[in-house]
What we know:
- It is built from nine helices and 14 strands.
- The protein is an alpha/beta fold and about 290 residues long.
- It has two domains: about 10-140, no CATH class; about 165-285, no CATH class.
- The strands form four sheets. A four-stranded antiparallel β-sheet has the order 1-2-4-3.
Amino acid sequence: xxxxxxxxxxxxxxxxxxxxxxxxxxxxxxxxxxxxxxxxxxxxxxxxxxxxxxxxxxxxxxxxxxxxxxxxxxxxxxxxxxxxxxxxxxxxxxxxxxxxxxxxxxxxxxxxxxxxxxxxxxxxxxxxxxxxxxxxxxxxxxxxxxxxxxxxxxxxxxxxxxxxxxxxxxxxxxxxxxxxxxxxxxxxxxxxxxxxxxxxxxxxxxxxxxxxxxxxxxxxxxxxxxxxxxxxxxxxxxxxxxxxxxxxxxxxxxxxxxxxxxxxxxxxxxxxxxxxxxxxxxxxxxxxx
Length: 289
């Protein structure tokens, strides 16, 4: 049975991969994409050249139909460049599991542009698409239904019940596990599925520790390049635990290490462990756009 299914699955992957690259070399289409990690969105602008048409109205209808047919592949190609976790880009994850590609293509195909407009000379149609990381994109990769619990510390730890966790990670940091003599400090990079560790490499927080309801609402971490954490008060409240990143980790520099003492304050009370389950973590890092 497995031998019969394997060629079929390979053919499906090949067909889907071809669909992703179908629009790659079209000289009449220009695609620009960027990420706003603070808002948790991928923004894509697609410009379609319709200068050769004698009827702007008909050309617009044809261009909009073209976009409906190709936005799935355009979306996948833009998303491929993002870091999924500490060692994989989205593209690398898709290459490891072809089922992800089908889900991403479907997500892209159902998208509708935020707006479309013709330029003043009526020779270019531009459409803007906004894809939300949460819940849409992260739902393709994080599929657990029950989170696992963080470490519980039973002995006394001087702490209090905080309303969130704020980690300052601006600048450059040592890369954990790499020879500092051979590697310069490097900045932290946001990702869809980051992890938080202590400096002794105990896991403090990751997507699988979070309630799917909260994870789909705002992801594992919130990201901001502003030190005004109160702009994220809904997430971290008015009295969060503040701590400093000590190192970055992973091939993509997407994971953070924090002091053991800070982690123990989190692990020491049910209320603080609940912060992890609800994803009430904000990372202050360098420019995000």
